[in-house]
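TA notes, week 10

Several of you asked for a full example with nothing omitted. So below is the full record: structure tokens for the whole chain, then the designed sequence directly under it. When grading your own attempts, check the secondary structure regions first.
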């Protein structure tokens, strides 16, 4: 039996064919085409996680599933099983499925175009483009109830007008910068042009940017011009995506069940699959909000489902303060992590629950990579090799820190704070 390579390198996006060695074993990531999984396959994945891994799964910030704790000796059997079920990504070194949609795509009454169909058309074009970084991805947003603004994509597509066009956005330090628009029929061609141009710039040595969102502004403008994008104005601001609870959908309701830090036990995944068959459409939709959406739930079943889900450890209320907590698996589960991020996040949260209940976002990252949340949070803490945290107010893990504190110091400074302005003031004064 061949041992699995455990080489780790920056910029690598793990999959089923290429698992990643981490603190608790091999991590096997399933990139789900279309963002959904039939209930029987969800049960199969849950059983595989228990048999071939340690029984723990993650739901990622792109709505993918990760099986954790896989061992070298169990990996070949897991690969064979997932390959038989069609759950293995295509061959190649590029992004497995680069287009991400809302879990409500296809059933969102507020969507203005078919985001799933557009995502498939884009992926068909992107698959033949050589030289794209493996982590590259595109947010395809139909303009509905779950905005993808904060997902951290390289390229954002957002429905314009009545849905007959899409605006193109690229992330910048100030938020999304809207670089142009194209008619819906031209969007796949325009996206392919931008992607090919970016890959060509990398090959020619014109840029060292690992992600399109880090590309120099002048080069971004060149790509937009080459794709013949039309001028556009910034779209209207929408409320952030709901992270738990009942959502409106075409026909019946959809229920979004959140998971603390996106960590899911195999029994929870099996339970979600059972609920989807018993109450809904027989499918689960992992969400970029790091939860599980169950579509097609009739009004008469909502109370029972929410009660059972709550008792099974899911977060079912949109006001739950734990939804403002973001943390990676941390040390020792992740080999890159320098601190036990989830445990520290819960400890800090115990000191500032009043802030979290107001919607203040707290991101605790075990290292500078910031895998759990690449975007800004009201307060970001980045683990360091001395066990302390770099403190970054209103920023991302890649931004400059204003303080370097231990957990005890953080607890002391956060404990008396009541509102977000107090937090900002305390951090500003401490940094002077």
């Amino acid at each position: 039996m061949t041992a699995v390579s455990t080489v780790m390198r920056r910029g690598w996006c793990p999959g089923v064919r290429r698992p990643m060695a981490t603190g608790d074993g091999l991590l096997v990531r399933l990139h789900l085409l279309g963002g959904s999984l039939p209930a029987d396959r969800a049960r199969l994945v849950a059983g595989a996680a228990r048999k071939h891994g340690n029984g723990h799964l993650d739901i990622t910030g792109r709505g993918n599933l990760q099986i954790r704790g896989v061992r070298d000796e169990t990996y070949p059997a897991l690969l064979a099983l997932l390959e038989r079920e069609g759950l293995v990504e295509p061959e190649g070194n590029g992004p497995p499925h680069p287009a991400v949609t809302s879990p409500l795509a296809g059933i969102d009454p507020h969507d203005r175009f078919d985001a799933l169909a557009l995502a498939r058309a884009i992926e068909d074009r992107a698959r033949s483009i050589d030289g794209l970084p493996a982590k590259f991805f595109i947010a395809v947003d139909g303009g509905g109830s779950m905005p993808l603004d904060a997902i951290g994509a390289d390229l954002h597509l957002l429905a314009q007008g009545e849905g007959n066009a899409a605006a193109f956005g690229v992330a910048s330090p100030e938020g999304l910068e809207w670089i142009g628009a194209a008619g819906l029929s031209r969007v796949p061609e325009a996206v392919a042009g931008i992607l090919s141009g970016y890959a060509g710039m990398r090959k020619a040595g014109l840029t060292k940017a690992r992600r399109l969102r880090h590309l120099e502004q002048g080069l971004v403008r060149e790509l937009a011009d080459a794709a013949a994008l039309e001028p556009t104005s910034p779209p209207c601001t929408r409320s952030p995506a709901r992270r738990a609870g009942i959502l409106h959908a075409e026909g019946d309701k959809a229920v979004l069940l959140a998971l603390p830090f996106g960590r899911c036990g195999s029994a929870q995944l099996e339970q979600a699959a059972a609920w989807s068959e018993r109450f809904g459409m027989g499918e689960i939709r992992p969400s970029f909000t790091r939860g599980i959406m169950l579509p097609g739930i009739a009004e008469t079943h909502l109370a029972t489902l929410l009660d059972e889900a709550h008792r099974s450890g899911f977060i079912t209320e949109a006001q739950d303060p734990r939804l403002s907590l973001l943390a990676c698996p941390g040390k020792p589960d992740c080999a890159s992590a320098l601190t036990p991020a989830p445990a520290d996040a819960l400890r800090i949260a115990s000191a500032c629950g009043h802030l979290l209940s107001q919607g203040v976002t707290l991101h605790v990252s075990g290292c500078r990579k910031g895998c759990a949340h690449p975007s800004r949070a009201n307060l970001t803490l980045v683990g360091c090799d001395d066990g302390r945290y770099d403190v970054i107010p209103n920023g991302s893990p890649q931004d400059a820190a204003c303080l370097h504190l231990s957990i005890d110091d953080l607890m002391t400074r956060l404990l008396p704070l009541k509102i977000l302005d107090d937090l900002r003031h305390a951090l500003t004064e401490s940094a002077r």
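The first helix runs from residue 39 to 52. Use that as a sanity check on your answer.
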